[in-house]
Description:
The chain is globular, with a radius of gyration of 16 Å.
Amino acid sequence: MQALMSIKKYAHEHDIPIMKEEGVSFVCEYIKKHNIKRILEIGSAIGYSAIRFARVSNDIFITTIEIDKERYLQAVQNIKDFGLENRISIYLQDALLFETTEKFDLIFIDAAKAQYIRFFEKYKTNLLDGGVILSDNLSFHGMVEDENLKCNKNTIMLVKKIRKYITFLRENTEFETEFIKCADGISISKKRNSE
Length: 195
Ligand code: SAH
Ligand code: MG
């Protein structure tokens, strides 16, 4: 679709890390297969993934949070262009400060990698029974698995944070996590007693 293409083009030109086709298709399939209706997304960027998720079915409702004003404004426009403003609620805020009592079937974490543990701990109480937390970019372009990482200091710090998050998920007694190798690495965490 033309409008989706132009969002992708904008993201590319402005260096905005929106999900690649493989990852977004995986999540859309997951949403369809598990009949997900209420989604919380941490990290909207310009609204691309939220729009893709919303288009899976017209009874899906999404709450999405973005910290960057320029991206938020662009997302608001994109959501409007798709006529999805009634099904996607977007907030301009730091997701660590956002407050909601709403419960969701799926929480999608796709924001600052260094904060993943904090996002997870904060939002796990917003899951409906049987709900899941998906996290994106756990492979970080293959760098997370690379033992001889050669790159700048900031990237190394980030990769270490992601490794720490993976350990946190592996050792979590409350949630059981499956690691999917597809795209840039996606994890699916389910509450252990929810099945
Ligand atoms: N999900 C989007 C891409 C998100 S990119 C898509 O695939 O279309 C990650 C976004 O998270 C960035 O736009 C960044 O500004 C935002 N972000 C980073 N830290 C955040 C925070 N603490 N709260 C909310 N958004 C945050
Ligand atoms: Mg991502």
